[in-house]
Amino acid sequence: MRNPIPDLLDELRERCADDDGGEVLSTIPELAKADPDRFGIGLCTIDGTVYGTGDAEHRFSIQSISKPFAYALALADRGRDTVLEHVGVEPSGDSFNEISLEQSGRPRNPMINIGAITTHALIGHEGISRKQRDKRVQQGLSAFAGRKLDVDEEVFASEQSEASRNLALAYLVHAREKLDGEPHHAVEGYIRQCSLLVDVRDLAVMAMTLAAGGRNPVTGEQVVPTWVCTQVLSVMATCGMYDASGQWMSTVGIPAKSGVSGGVLGALPGQAGIGAFSPRLDEIGNSVRGVRAFEALSADLGLHLMHAPEVASHVLYGVVEPDADGDGLREVQLQGTMHFAAVEVALRELEEVPDGESFVLDLSRVASATDVGRRLLLEAVERMRADRREVRITDPHDILGG
Ligand code: GLU
């Protein structure tokens, strides 16, 4: 095979597999039965190509990794304001099952249990029945994965029998009037949500859907609006890895969420969705090998979000000067993606066109533009035309929208 990526992933997995530190979760009886040596990694790209290595098709309950997706559904169904009235966006610095409430009674964020149970209760329209909400959650998470996800009834029953702590959290939020509906309904639905079965390939596609602005790269379905993904990824970046979130962001630099069954999901905006699974957890509750795999992926593939991309200075493909005898027009040729920083460079180049001189703006090498990039370019063209200059635009890919 010419593509080196599968070998690269196999090699990376092998390197991380020698770490047998950590312990399988013991507090949920059904999860305690997991084979501790399982280890798989999945990676999905923006065009829907999915790579897998190791136990890539082994299914496990999604657990807390369902939380960002439930948050996405609540935001899409009830709007940002309503969701924010009920659940905050600040890191808690506490364990996942702590009583992390703000003064107002609002749970601190949707990535810890108290906030996730409250978020679950907001999914669907107001007054929705418990059964209908379960269906909405199952269908919604399945749309993110691009295949129908099933509930592991044994994990569900096992967690239901040990639900006192989650019930206590739900009743506390209810007492502060921040929980929609009955506490035991919210907890039961939340536990069903946590019991959905996935493999690391599913996690990779789910992550890529978030990282691609809500459009599933495999099915093409727009699962949630783009603004929802921006909100969800922001909260994952600050609160996704239990109380190791700050450390994770500095070492790995990928918005992520982990769960107690041993899964880790990471979503790098515009680039990659990643899933990893291995059941042994560190003392904070994150998969030991999962964390190692993400550290290695981030370093080997240069995936740290805060690593500045080199784009802006490449925006100018070339400038063709007019002939000395006055024939021909000056041509400003742009390339790449027209986002704010790139367009800013281009605008300064346009500034160099002498007053009154006509010219050609060549966008044939431009791949795409953000709304801001498009607006700024159009505004510059309009101003130059007002300046009695002829501006011809070569725009075969319709970057400026007609
Ligand atoms: N269902 C688990 C619980 O509520 C999820 C915890 C987790 O994965 O962090 O305790």
Tell me what the structure shows.
It is a single chain. It is built from 15 helices and 11 strands. It is α+β, with helices and mostly antiparallel strands. The chain folds into 2 domains: 297 residues, DD-peptidase/beta-lactamase superfamily (Beta-lactamase); 83 residues, Transcription Regulator spoIIAA. The strands form 3 sheets. Strands 2-1-7-6-5 form a 5-stranded antiparallel beta sheet. The protein has a 4-stranded mixed beta sheet with strand order 8-9-10-11. A two-stranded antiparallel sheet has the order 3-4. The longest helix has 16 residues. It is elongated, with a radius of gyration of 25 Å. The model has no long low-confidence stretch (mean pLDDT 94). Bound molecules: glutamic acid. Glutamic acid binds next to loops.
Number of domains: 2
Gross morphology is elongated
Helix amount: 40-55%
What ligands can be seen in this structure?
A: glutamic acid
Q: What do we call the CATH topology of the largest domain? A: Beta-lactamase
Order of strands, main sheet, comes to 2-1-7-6-5
Low-confidence stretches: none
Keywords:
single chain; 402 residues; alpha+beta; Beta-lactamase; Transcription Regulator spoIIAA; four-stranded mixed β-sheet; binds glutamic acid
In short:
By secondary structure, this protein is of the alpha+beta class. It has helices at 5-17, 29-32, 66-78, 80-86, 113-120, 130-145, 153-160, 164-175, 183-194, 200-211, 226-239, 245-251, 288-301, 340-351, 371-386, and strands at residues 40-45, 50-54, 60-61, 197-198, 256-258, 263-268, 272-277, 316-320, 330-338, 359-369, 391-394.
